[in-house]
Give the backbone structure.
Amino acid sequence: MDEKSLKENLAVIRQALSRAHRVVALTGAGISAESGVPTFRGAEGLWRHYRATDLATPEAFARDPRLVWEFYNWRRDLLAPLRPNAAHLALVELEGRVPEFLLITQNIDGLHRAAGSRQVLELHGNIWQVRCTGCGRITEDRTLLPELPACGACGGLLRPHVVWFGESLDPMVLNRAFKAVESCQALLIIGTSGNVQPAASMGLHARRHGAFVAEINLEATPATGAYDVTLLGKAGELLPRVVR
Ligand code: APR
């Protein structure tokens, strides 16, 4: 994208944001890429000889909870030193300016909250939280967990409080996300490939309800042509320019 058309597109997005009272941002793995978060797909998604997508399932946990916990402890260890980048920080700034703002993220890394975002809806949960498979209690725990961690309340087996492949999203979380998407005047979609539902349909949903929709991504996605504006490039470089 040349600098002239980039500037024109930035101006269009800024104008839409300045008019909007209700703004939603939807983020995916791409916003955390510049912080060094490894992705689940491709070569980075391999742990030992396992594919991450084969371990992040309820079946894998039922079969071998030790192995799944070993994998999550490894991921937690990798994520622990990582810090929010300029894109996360730009969204904190945007939240401070907009009367009603909601950040919907598919990321489980917790970097939006670490950056200082307040209104955050984590569609796929959070890797720093654990949930008891017995009593359902959810707690935050950043320590290195034992191979089979137990619930402090009932002694049941804990699992990561994340949504695994093949599991449904929390209906309350989903409902809140779609309500916000339907009623916002501007939606920013950042760093998501648009391959995983339900987030993949939120852009078109917002558009149908009359919102301005802009996308920031390294590459075009299946829905790119249907949005008002797409900025191709790194979120850490483009988002601060949107918000500036
Ligand atoms: N800036 C902007 N976009 C980027 C950057 C960057 N620095 N780096 C990568 N991207 C883009 C990629 O081009 C890709 O289109 O971010 C997108 C990331 O896509 P996915 O890896 O598919 O991530 P996401 O859309 O969040 O995946 C959804 O699937 O892996 C599961 O549950 C996991 O929440 C995840 C869900």
The domain at 38-81+125-162 is CATH 3.30.1600.10 (SIR2/SIRT2 'Small Domain'). The radius of gyration is 18 Å. Residues 28-30, 33-34, 39-41, 106, 124, 191-193, 195-196, 216-219, 221, 234-235 surround adenosine-5-diphosphoribose (CB under 6 Å). The mean pLDDT is 95.
